[in-house]
Amino acid sequence: MKITQSKDKAEMIRSVKHFLMQYAIYLVLVAIIVTIVILEPSILSVRNATFILQQAAPKLIIALGLAGLILLGGTDLSAGRMVGIAGVICASLLQKPDYALRIFKTMAPLPIIVPLLIAIGVCVFFAMMHSMLISFFQIAPFIASLGMQMIVYGVMSLYFDGVNNSSPIGGFDTRFTKIAQGSIQMGSFRLPWIVIYALVITFFFWVLWYRTTLGRNMYAVGGNKEAAIVSGVNTKRVIILVYILAGVAYALAGFLDAGRTGSATNGLGEGYELDAIASCVVGGVSLRGGVGRISGVVTGVLIFQVLSYCLVYMDINPYIQFIIKGMIIIFATVVDTQKYIKKR
Amino acid sequence: MGHESYLLEMKSISKRFPGVQALQDVQFNVKAGEVHALMGENGAGKSTLMKCLFGIYQMDEGEIFMEGAPVQIHNPRKALDSGIAMVQQELEQIPQRNVMDNIWLGRYPRKGLFIDDAKMYEDTNKIIELFNMDIDPYAQMNHLSVSTKQMADIIKAVSYNAKVIVLDEPTSSLTEKETESLFQIIKRLKEQGSGIIYISHKLEEVMAISDRVTVLRDGRWVATERTEDITTDELIKLMVDRDLEKRFPPKDKEIGQTVLSVENLSSVYSPQIHDVSFEVRTGEILGIGGLVGAGRTELLECIFGMRTVSEGAVYAGGRNLVGSHKSCKDFGIAMVTEERRETGIFPMMDIRWNTVASSIDKDCTGMGLISLKKVEKSTQWAVDAMRIKTPTLKTLISSLSGGNQQKVLLGRCLLNEPKILLLDEPTRGIDVGAKYEIYQLMIALAKEGKAVIFVSSEMPELLGIADRILVMSNGRNAGIVDAESCTQEIIMKLAAKYL
Q1: Are B76 and A207 inside 8 Å of each other by CB?
Q2: DSSP states of A103-120 as a string?
Q3: Greater confidence, A108 or B302?
Q4: How many angstroms separate the CA of residue B492 from the nearest CA in chain A?
Q5: Domain layout of chain B by residue ranges
Q6: Residues of B with CB below 8 A from A234's CB?
Q7: Does the residue A13 lie in any domain?
Q8: Is residue A6, in this structure, part of any structural domain at all?
Q9: Main-chain dihedrals φ then ψ at residue B287, nearest 5 degrees
């Protein structure tokens, strides 16, 4: 009798431990946010919620693209610059016809889809090159993406410098700003269109991850590449497709983020990849590959955005903000790694 | 052209790896509706031949014919498309995904653009029923037992409806009952006209299930015979090319006092061991047998302080060493691991550094700097004592043969002058001649008064080298038997005791 009791107790302790392990990062972040709200109750407003969602939307799109690469067991440091190049291209091609500093003065106004498609084309081109490095040459994703980051930044800066002498590109076509900045008024709540786009894209990725062969194969390649190969999965093709999808996501995010902020420089997108990777890790997408959920990515992005917004709102020293975010990333990774460490 | 009456024909297959000719001019064929067993000792080239067939390795020379027509198999996809399926010895599965995702990987049923999960579930259940098994298609792979994982892999191979099905050691962790249901499936597949290639070390199994048997030795084809025309003894003789009596060196040695006693040892994390007790005496060789996954390696790791122990004690030299890797090393316990490449050698380093890796403190000068002279002296000692065949001391260890690599690892242990040696599958993947030398070394060490504990999956080896055999079953000690009076059947029975 006594033995079974102690066994039950051990079982209970184990399941509590498991629960804490699984949700540790959420618990910590929620605790931080609750503390902030207690310290600064004025933060709880519809206005702030709208801002947070608006800022989170492009980051969610980036994170969804990048999460696929992490799921494959890789990472992507070039994501931010890819967003940047897409943003700069769209910005340069979507200025008001009567804007004094218009870059292409004689060009007729383009249909809005054309610059977007050009941006997607450029990003897909870079993503394909990137995926070749990973699939055919089997370079470590960290290094491959570091190199791609610099190349994309260089190309973007050359273009930026060449067309606009390194001054910020502004004066966007109203059609463009409407798409990126517009919103639907719902009573006292303003729902930005950009949030709706992000939700549609999230749904697209949800279907792709869970309901298609590519999605399942992505989990397989990330979980055990050898097993995927001997089961006849064309792993190279899977890798290339996932990179292309990420490229498309980056292009969409760049298009929206440039439109949202109303101007673009070659600094656009700097550091976005780090926020996106951090959000994925916080959301439980394992850096070891093969494990992760869309709901996790969404939660991760939201929590991270709420936290960033709160820190700015409370006017915390930006350097301290860096320290806090760095600690959260490390904590999330520690928890993630503990889950998969082989206990002996 | 290939021969018309063969379903599959492999002709003059050669494959070379750095430092070893793995296959030399091997021929092999399978007829429709037959089970063709492929036999040979570890390292004979059976798995390599099958990996060439399945496109995991690219053969250097040779031709493959399916139903008389030549086929080029560059990757597993091509093999599957040509009608070849395979269960590998080392299971390739995706641990984080569920059973049906694993089974249908690479050919998910679809409805338009989307995966048809309902059909997948149904199809999975259908074959699980065929096998009379109890597996939840939604169960996550890494939550299953070793034998269930193995059955899942077999189910997967069968579900391809392939013309040729390769089973590489399919029963290494199966119970007798599961093996029986596998044999039923094999019979059904035969009736359907499939050709089965069956690789196993278990002679009784091969005699029971196969129609023909081909023997490989050291990467060469030796013989192909009808199973009914050959006896077990003849088969063994073909495999080892040595009379049975001379397969193992004589063991004339004296057994002394108890040097290690393990009491009620249990471990925390899976694969767990439960309540294992035994003693070893100086000069004694204790073999540890049992199925793959029975907790043999884990037992050694628990003794050596590499695993978290929940209960029990490991007494040596009057002290309880349990849980402390350092106390074990200080007392004089040394271990050679099972996965030579993964956890044994440092492949990018030469023999010197591989040899002195665990005793380098002894090769330092008074200043605490490494003395190259001392390192070379130690290495030379190991090379001489272990009879390591190497061009120079500065040769990369990865360019040596498996047997010589193993001798380097043994030398590494002995430089610490251990009293107790733990050897996990010491002859795995090395050729027959080298095996004999390892046996000689083990016996010589025991003669010097050391205690040797070794894990082996090869029953003849257990019976031939050990004084006593501890059989593990599902993490428990199923019994300790005298090697003299023991038979393979007794070991098999004990291995299934707690399943």
Answers
A1: no
A2: SSTTPPPPPTHHHHHHHH
A3: B302
A4: 28
A5: 8-241, 258-495
A6: 77
A7: no
A8: no
A9: -90, 145
Is a pLDDT exceeding 50 seen at residue B458? yes
> Which amino acid is present at A138?
Q
The alpha carbon dihedral of A173, A177, A179, A180 has a sign of: positive
Which chain A residues have a beta carbon less than 8 Å from that of B114? 207, 211-212
- Residue B43: phi, psi to the nearest 5? 85, 5
Q: Show the DSSP H helices in chain A as ranges.
A: 2-39, 46-71, 79-93, 113-135, 141-164, 174-181, 193-211, 213-223, 225-230, 235-261, 272-282, 294-313, 318-340
Q: Which domain holds residue A238?
A: 24-38+45-340
- Contact by Cβ (8 Å): A327, A53: no
Q: Is A344 on the interface with B (CB under 8 A)?
A: yes
CA distance B365 to B246: 46
B97–A211 CB contact, under 8 Å: no
Please give, rounded to a whole number of angstroms, the shortest distance from the CA of A222 to a CA of chain B: 9
Q: How many domains does chain A have?
A: 1
Query: What residues of B are in contact with residue A226 (Cβ under 8 Å)?
Result: 92
pLDDT for A162-197, tens place per residue?
Answer: 988 888 999 999 999 999 999 998 887 889 999 999
Q: Do B95 and A224 touch (CB under 8 A)?
A: yes
The predicted structure's pLDDT at residue A1: 42
Asked whether residue A87 is domain-assigned, the answer is: yes
- The ipTM is 0.81
Q: How far is A303 from chain B (nearest CA, A)?
A: 26
pLDDT tens-digit readout, B378-400? 999 999 998 888 888 998 998 88
The number of helices, as runs of H, and strands, as runs of E, in chain B is 16, 22
Could you report how far apart the first and last alpha carbons of chain B are, in Å?
49
Q: What is the chain B residue with the closest CA to A341?
A: B269
User: Is A5 inside any structural domain?
Assistant: no
Q: How far is C-alpha A176 from the chain's CA centre?
A: 22
The span from the CA of A194 to the CA of A197, in Å, is 5
Give domain B258-495's CATH superfamily: P-loop containing nucleotide triphosphate hydrolases (3.40.50.300)
Cross-strand partners of B212? B36, B226
B101:A229 CB<8 A: no
Q: Do domains B8-241 and B258-495 have the same CATH topology?
A: yes
Residue from A231, A227, A246, A269 nearest A131 by CA: A246
Q: How far apart are CA A339 and CA A341, in angstroms?
A: 6
Q: Rounded distance, CA A23 to CA A157, Å?
A: 42
Write out the two tokens for B131.
Answer: 């096998």
Domain B8-241 CATH class label = alpha beta
- Which chain A residues in 119-178 lie under 8 Å from chain B, judged by CB atoms? none
Put simply, the answer to whether B95 touches A229 (Cβ < 8 Å) is no
Q: How many CB pairs under 8 A join A and B?
A: 78
The shortest CB-CB distance from B93 to any of A217, A224, A291 is to: A224
